[in-house]
Design goal:
Number of helices: 12
Structural class: alpha/beta
Low-confidence stretches: none
Strand order of the largest sheet: 1-15-12-9-2-3-4-5
Number of domains: 2
Strand content: 25-35%
Helix content: 10-25%
Shape: globular
Number of strands: 35
Radius of gyration: 23 Å
CATH topology of the largest domain: Glutaconate Coenzyme A-transferase
CATH architecture of the largest domain: 3-Layer(aba) Sandwich
Mean pLDDT: 95
CATH superfamily of the largest domain: Glutaconate Coenzyme A-transferase
Oligomer: single chain
Amino acid sequence: MRGRVRFLTAEAAADLVQDGQTLAIGGSGGGLLEPDALLAALGRRFRATGSPRGLDLVHTTGIGDRQGGGMDHLAQRGLVRSVVAGNWGMAPAMSAMAVAGEFEAYNFPQGVMSQLFREIAAGRPGVVTHVGLGTFCDPRVEAGRLNDVSPQTRVEVVELAGREWLFYPGFDLDVCFIRGTTADERGNLSFEQEGARLEMLAIAQATRNRGGLVIAQVKQVAKAGTLDPRLVAVPGICVDVVVHHPAQKQVVTHVYNPAFSGELRAAASTLPPFPLDARKVVARRALSEIEAGDVVNLGVGIADGIASVAAEDGRLDEFTTTIEQGAVGGIPARGVIFGVATNPEAILDQPAQFDFYDGGGLDIAFLGFAQVDAVGNVNVSKFGSRVVGTGGFVDISQNAGTVVFCGTFTAGGLDVRVGGGELRVVTEGEHPKFVPAVAQVTFSARESVARGQRVRYVTERAVFDLTARGLRLLEVAPGVDVRRDVLDRIPFDVLVEDVRTMEPEYFQ
């Protein structure tokens, strides 16, 4: 039986976390539903007292702002024993410690992580799924491990109903940090000013049902019985402690934008224009792959500009955008606050969004790429000493009917001139993206070909598709020399058959 909810300061709530406990943390990048006051208070406590030590941390998405916030509050030697996360890119200090082997560290697909909390809440053993087969999450590849100090015990291959699956086991939870907009005096949480709901309910239910402590941060407090029950996303029966944080921002760039929460619909004229550059060329060419009526996923990075281009061209009403954090419809925000959308039509819980993706609900997905190799594998998760993590990339790329990988041909100083219906390469980037073998397999070309998936790779100067024999060159930009600017810069053979010229309108 639970007692009445307690209202504490962030410091007093952080004091409840004990040595060696497993702490689940809700939130997403750029401050979205991030319990920032709680994370900062826990970080201050450790710096001042050296406690709590040896925590096992679990979070679904990347949490932070790449500037020291979010999970980087906890990036302190001795505080962490292990981290299991769906993404690491928003907390570079924590990521660097993981790569250095300071603690056990794992990266699993974002959708699997969100669904895992729901399975734990229901008392089931874990998630059985096809997501991750053939990628670095597969125990026959890297088992999702980010360093050599991490045991290979977090994921298993199982056979069920004549098929091969991956099993991601559940775990106990001692305490969790979640966030909402408003709490009433009974601990009921509403999310009326948030741009997502993520898996806050699943985390709270999982922690509560495992006997753990649920700590919620909110912006405001209401009298008991005054919240609209239709807006309550986490009931008070699942909440133990509430921390009132009046300075809470919707995301790091906005105190509150009502177009993110659905309170109003913003006029398209208020959105910033997309400058004509290599990124816009990629977005324009990628947009041409969408058919009327398609259900679309747009990934973080260069692909998130596709909706902006569609809005400029008056095509946004022809298809429906989705993003993995739960928004359906609208224009996904770009950059650090990716995860919210302007003018969404619906905002789902993140596990439900991934259920839809996993079952084949996406007609087409647009994702970035850091490396592509000779057989068509893609890496977005780890390169050199930097770990970004998969996020929802594995879940989405394995399940969409068509996948379009979007990116510039090279990186690091690339300078191109776009205009007059053509493209000229002024200075080539220092870092090739087409490599003999990727550093980590985030997308398995072999698995994709076996499924009969349609795959394309779109850059500012060339377009390729995936075949059983590797990459095939389909199109080259006007103004580009196919030998000098494309083929000679790829360290492996590609099929060259009936190469077309990209539409001049993309370059003007």
